[in-house]
Design a protein that fits this description.
Isopropylmalate Dehydrogenase, 2 domains, 11 helices, 37% helix
Length: 322
């Protein structure tokens, strides 16, 4: 078992992440030390608001190798941020703070202190500012990686969209044999490395029932040849399947992963099936990056009603992989 600490970046200051972290400390016996990158001032404000008490140990990043870390404390790397209330409106005010948190995380990874990262949610509207489709692509850029995949992971069934946070009208232009190959190879390598077997992968079609009224049918012209080529290379792929039936129980139980052509084609059914019992793993980075499968969730801020299951699952995964 890998004994390195688990690194947490709290992300957007005005989100439910610290709430679910506090609940995780309460509900789970955590085997590996956690290191939290966050504002000390913000942490104190939200602890008071949410009526949570735990001692805090502020970590000097320059001396981090000298610390004996355990979870009796919140092991905190303090990134300065000024906020008067526990929760405010999400805005671009926090952009520099979030950027500095990720810079600190990447520095720790490069130093070899950790080889993983769990990040809280961020605002695509304010933090990414149309420069990146999602935090997956943001972190890939920081690592100089082009071939990445978003895997929404559950032991029973996982999904992966070929395109991520892309408007539907642009999806068909991005579907090609090369990108399908990239995602399938990353998924196959991930399952072999961490679970010791080649996964069975279903690939959905792009069009309803894999049919099109247009002259150019992506399912016939792109997906079918790509799947034939992958089969020749001994990948355990099947399809293209109609997206409206592949998630029926009698069909989905045959596969470990279902790969779809766009975000909601596979994320809607997986969230319907498992709700919070799934984690978002970025494949293709030089470290394991996981995001609990929820957003900032502004409507729930300060209410202390959020479900910590996805974060617990993320920590469980990092505790149990080799």
């Amino acid at each position: 078992m890998n004994s390195k600490p688990i690194l947490l970046v709290a992300g957007e200051p005005n989100s439910i992440f610290l709430e679910i972290l506090f609940k995780t400390y309460r509900r789970k016996k955590i085997k590996k030390p956690l290191i939290l990158i966050c504002s000390y001032k913000l942490l104190i404000l939200q602890m008071k608001k949410l009526r949570y008490k735990k001692r805090i140990k502020i970590i000097d990043i320059k001396k981090i190798k000298k610390y004996k870390l355990d979870n009796k404390f919140i092991n905190l790397i303090d990134v300065k941020y000024q906020q008067k209330k526990a929760f405010e409106k999400i805005s671009s005010k926090s952009n520099n703070y979030i950027e500095n948190c990720f810079k600190t995380a990447i520095k720790l990874i490069n130093l070899g202190i950790v080889n993983n990262l769990i990040n809280g949610p961020i605002s695509k509207k304010y933090f990414l500012r149309n420069k990146f489709l999602g935090i997956t692509e943001f972190l890939a850029k920081k690592s100089n990686k082009k071939n990445i995949a978003m895997l929404i992971f559950n032991k029973e069934l996982s999904v992966c969209p070929i395109t991520t946070h892309l408007p539907v009208k642009k999806v068909s232009k991005k579907i090609n044999k090369s990108i399908i190959f990239e995602k399938i190879i990353l998924i196959d390598n991930f399952y072999k490395k961490y679970f010791g077997y080649k996964p069975k992968i279903a690939i959905t079609g792009l069009n309803p029932h894999c049919e099109s009224i247009e002259r150019f049918n992506e399912d016939k012209r792109i997906l079918e040849p790509a799947i034939r080529s992958l089969l020749k290379r001994k990948y355990r792929v099947s399809g293209p399947f109609s997206a409206d039936t592949i998630f029926l129980k009698k069909n989905r139980i045959k596969f470990n992963v279902i790969v779809g052509m766009y975000h909601d084609q596979v994320l809607t059914p997986i969230k319907t099936l498992f709700e919070y019992d799934a984690i978002n793993i970025t494949l293709g980075l030089p470290y394991i990056r996981i995001s609990p499968d929820h957003g900032p969730n502004e409507k729930m801020l300060g209410r202390n009603l959020s479900n910590p299951l996805s974060l617990i699952k993320a920590i469980n995964f990092l505790e149990n992989i080799k």
